[in-house]
Specification:
Blueprint (H helix, E strand, L loop, with lengths): L1 H18 L6 H23 L5 H43 L3 H31 L4 E8 L9 E6 L10 H13 L4 E5 L7 H8 L11 E4 L9 H10 L3 E2 L3 E7 L2 E7 L17 H5 L8 E4 L6 H6 L4 E4 L10 H8 L5 E5 L2 E5 L18 E8 L3
Parallel strand pairs: 1-12, 2-3, 3-4, 4-5, 7-8, 8-9, 9-11
Antiparallel strand pairs: 2-12, 6-7, 10-11
């Protein structure tokens, strides 16, 4: 299906960018050949998939997926321009009849407009996605939090997407950024990887450089279930990361405490991984309701269940903040929030935009973030 969509879009681009803007001859042949190559590149990356070494996939995916992002914007801009194109064409035809020269000029002007706007969006998107990830400080007041824990800092790393385009160096920079904030606890809220332990285990070991008094906690995201989730659970547990699978732990100091619960991603049940599946009830069963509970769940959609069970705060990710406008609107149809802090009944929901990207290495209208959530008591 993906290959069919790519083929149809490239055919449309050929008509508007090549056929309509050239006369038969060498230039048209060159343009046609270039579009064929650009069509093949993302297809090769998709077909190669997990069977090729990361060193081979990396350059192919960089070029192919950047082109997918550019292609998307060219396609959207050209579609938007279809209405003025039709209006201008009708006007020109009424005034002058069919003038091939004016028709060619109009086609080139519209194609040029689409290319310039798309290139601008792509440059902004790539720079935003691949630059230094900024820190976003968010303060959340929890009514049941003991004043002794007011100011407790949770660093949120989410949607890192280690893989062909994001490697050890990028994760190491994010780790340094987190450490500079002196968090009490680090929560890795899913979609850490896009590949197997054999391919990415060495890069993921960079997490060991994180410094937090109460440790590093992890919950699975949907992309772990494309990458051998149980193998990753075993690997991360083996290097000292606490994986929360429908369970909770008590976080406390000097007699003051809150519960930290974590659940498998909601996609786990259909993944084929034995024993995997989101079970918030199991994670919260039998807890002391006098103290607050913070839930780690990759997808925001779990917040209704969290609110029903009295959670004080849910920390999620998954959406990338939409990543590439206008996908914001599509993501919002399937999730209760796109990004940032919101409220569902008595439960706070924080949705991180994440640090990495999926698909094209671009972020347009959705900058990445490392979040520091500072918990405050009602009395503070």
């Amino acid at each position: 299906m993906v290959l069919l969509v790519l083929g149809v879009i490239h055919l449309y681009l050929w008509k508007r960018l090549v056929r309509d803007t050239t006369v038969p001859g060498r230039l048209r042949r060159v343009g046609t050949g270039l579009l064929v190559v650009l069509l093949i590149l993302p297809m090769v990356a998709l077909v190669g998939g997990r069977s090729w070494p990361m060193s081979v996939l990396r350059p192919l995916e960089w070029v192919g997926l950047v082109w997918v992002g550019v292609m998307f914007y060219i396609f959207v801009v050209l579609l938007v321009l279809e209405l003025p194109r039709a209006a201008l064409w009708i006007r020109v035809r009424r005034e002058d009849g069919v003038d091939p020269g004016r028709r060619l000029f109009l086609s080139r002007a519209l194609a040029g407009t689409a290319l310039v706007l798309s290139a601008g969006a792509a440059v902004v998107g790539v720079v935003t996605a691949t630059g230094r990830v900024p820190v976003n400080l968010v303060r959340v007041r929890l009514g049941r939090l003991d004043p002794a824990l007011s100011g407790y800092r949770i660093a949120v790393l989410a949607d890192v997407h280690l893989g062909p385009l994001i490697g050890r160096d990028e994760l190491a920079e994010q780790v340094r950024t987190v450490n500079a904030e002196s968090p009490d606890l680090v929560a890795v809220v899913g979609d850490l990887v896009d590949g197997s332990v054999a391919e990415l285990g060495e890069a993921a070991e960079t997490l060991l450089e994180l410094r937090a008094e109460d440790g590093i906690f992890f919950v699975t995201g949907n992309h772990e279930y494309y990458s051998g989730a149980q193998e990753w659970v075993d690997f991360l547990s083996g290097i000292g990361v606490r994986v929360l699978r429908n369970e909770r732990v008590e976080i406390g100091r000097d007699g003051a405490a809150f519960d930290l619960a974590g659940v498998d991603d909601v996609s786990a049940a259909g993944s084929g991984e034995p024993g995997h599946g989101a079970d918030l009830g199991a994670a919260l069963a039998g807890r002391d309701t006098s103290r607050p509970v913070v839930v780690l769940a990759h997808q925001p959609v779990l917040v209704d269940a969290a609110a029903e069970q009295g959670a004080d705060l849910q920390i999620s990710a998954h959406t990338h903040g939409g990543q590439i406008w206008p996908f914001h609107y599509i993501v919002r149809l399937s999730q209760p929030a796109l990004a940032g802090l919101s409220r569902v009944r008595e439960t706070w929901l924080y949705v991180s935009r994440g640090t990495g990207f999926a698909g094209p290495p671009m972020r347009v209208g959705a900058s990445p973030e490392i979040t520091i959530i500072e918990l405050l008591s009602a009395a503070s």
